């Protein structure tokens, strides 16, 4: 009986070890199937979406939905941010608060970065030539005013003074996180926009393709003026709301300053 008992104990030990091995194997498989980190998933998707892109090229509707759905799930915790970090603090000054840019990735096809704005900071009205841009407000509240050009060639619109071009308001509202991803296109969706931080906030931008001076995709800044009727303006029929005159600036606004800081969130692996 003692020998049988020992044999049973040994068998039990073998079975126990086998079960442990199976359990360990299952855990290993679960670890292998663990979803990629959100930022890496975003990067991998951007590589696919913008693989054949270029200036003026718009991703397919399916790709737009796919990339937007990933961005929609992102929050500050996914990129290592929180409102208590130093670059979200507003320092008393006569100048507008400085903005901090965190660089995640850039190549000739697309770029990923985060703008960190203290309260009252402003990114002036600017354009995105030939680009499709995905913007996700990670936290905080931000006022966005955006415009698209009115096709003056197919109308009889005459600007009141030289250098003005007519634009139609696409958005003039405050966004509060959590909210859906905003998307703008080369000629629609609010290609020219201005950000004003209502509270400390952070916005993640995906640009496809990115700005490029050698390729002529440079950022132009604008001043906007209230729309008024002008001789020959037969298309708008005196309609004022929802339109404005935009004038390109020769240089970036002097009081607009953007510094850089090291991105300390999950790293991107470019395989």
Features:
globular, six-stranded mixed beta sheet, 12 strands, 271 residues
What does it look like?
It is a single chain. The strands form 2 sheets. The protein has a 6-stranded mixed beta sheet with strand order 7-4-9-2-1-12, covered by helices on one side. The chain has a 6-stranded antiparallel beta sheet with strand order 3-8-5-6-11-10, with no helix packed on it. With 271 residues, it is α+β, with helices and mostly antiparallel strands. The radius of gyration is 26 Å and the shape is globular. It has helices at residues 2-32, 38-49, 61-72, and strands at 99-106, 111-117, 122-126, 132-139, 141-149, 165-176, 182-184, 192-197, 201-208, 222-226, 243-248, 258-261. Helix 2 (38-49) runs antiparallel to helix 3.
């Amino acid at each position: 009986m003692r020998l049988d008992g020992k044999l049973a104990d040994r068998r039990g030990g073998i079975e126990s070890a086998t079960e442990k091995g199976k359990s360990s194997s299952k855990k290993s498989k679960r670890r292998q199937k663990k979803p990629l980190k959100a930022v890496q998933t975003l990067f991998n998707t951007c590589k696919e979406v913008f693989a054949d892109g270029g200036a003026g090229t718009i991703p397919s509707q399916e790709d737009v939905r796919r990339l937007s759905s990933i961005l929609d799930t992102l929050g500050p915790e996914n990129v290592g941010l929180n409102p208590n970090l130093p670059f979200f603090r507003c320092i008393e000054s006569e100048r507008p608060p400085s903005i901090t840019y965190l660089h995640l990735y850039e190549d000739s096809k697309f770029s990923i970065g985060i703008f960190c704005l203290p309260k009252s900071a402003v990114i002036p009205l600017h354009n995105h030539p030939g680009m499709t841009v995905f913007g996700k407000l990670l936290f905080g509240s931000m006022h966005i005013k955006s415009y698209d050009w009115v096709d003056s060639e197919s109308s009889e619109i005459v600007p009141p003074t030289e250098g003005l071009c007519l634009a139609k308001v696409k958005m003039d509202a405050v966004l509060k996180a959590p909210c859906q991803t905003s998307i703008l296109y080369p000629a629609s969706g609010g290609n020219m926009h201005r950000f004003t931080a209502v509270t400390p906030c952070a916005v993640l931008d995906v640009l496809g393709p990115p700005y490029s001076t050698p390729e002529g995709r440079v950022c132009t800044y604008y001043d906007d003026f209230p729309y008024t009727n002008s001789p020959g303006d037969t298309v708008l029929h005196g309609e004022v709301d929802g339109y404005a005159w935009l004038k390109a600036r020769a240089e970036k606004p002097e009081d607009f300053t953007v510094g850089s800081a090291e991105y300390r969130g999950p790293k991107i692996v470019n395989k």
